[in-house]
Sequence to fold (335 residues):
Amino acid sequence: MATIEIPAAKISFECPPGDTILRAGLRAGLGMAYECNVGSCGNCQFELLEGKVESLYPEAPGLNERMRQRNRHLGCQSLALTDCKIKLPMRDDYKSLILPARATGHLTAIENLTHDIREFRFRLDKGNRFLPGQYGLIGVPGVVGARAYSYCNNTADGAEWHFQIKRMPNGKASTALFDQLKVGDAVTLDGPYGNAYLREDAPRDILCVAGGSGLSPMISIARAFAASEKLKGRKLHFVYGGRSGRDLAGEAILRGLPGFGKTIFYYAALSNPADDDNWTGRTGFVHEAVKDILGASLPEHEIYFAGPPPMTEAVMKMAIENKVPVAQLHYDRFY
Fold:
């Protein structure tokens, strides 16, 4: 087992074999910056001062060649081969409220939600709780590297982890999940991770914006909202965007929650409705629909959003242009 030292912070922690430096640090309760956890965002990079590491993903887009030449590495992809000294900023807001842990999960059920989104439900051999809006890592048999997927359920004991996952064109992990995984099969699970979790203490109504499999964390937040005593009397607006009618999802789930139509409201927008959709609802991009629905009241909301990168970037830009404080915007970057 390697010891990782952060001299500037006078901190050290143990990194077990097979664990990454980032995840070991988060399990130790440290505030190490990160977002995607799969090598894409670059937010977890550190400078290696002493020691040797091995990268699980040498071509990860989160680092460019210039950064590599400066001896920088991604915490989420780095295995410690020896004791190491590293340099990175520490921030208390990245400390995990629930420490992530690894477990084995067995698939108990699969449900089709749209033509390319399915819900996969796993029961863990050793449960771990998570916060609404967070994500876990799934290690799919036969696929190199874990993949990050957001939870869609809520749980008191963490015994069940449910994910709404979109089939990605040429995606090795989603293809394996959709085409190979069967009820009873085992996967490795790791979590929880992510900082875009529901803030029950925020004194504002809630806006959830989703596209694609961004549905999953927003459904988790909506379910938690419906069950929360702290949030009684508040409203939740849920805006979902798709290209055509066959992409739409979420309304049936929300209709089953207490308060639908009174404190929980669902809106849909199609950017490219098909001729046979007979669509009479909103058209255009989802960030345009959000602005149309809430208008000048946007700054009065705590905003959570998830979906394809162009969507999340557009929502962020629109919210800032409409004077929403950055502290009220919550999302985890995925690519």
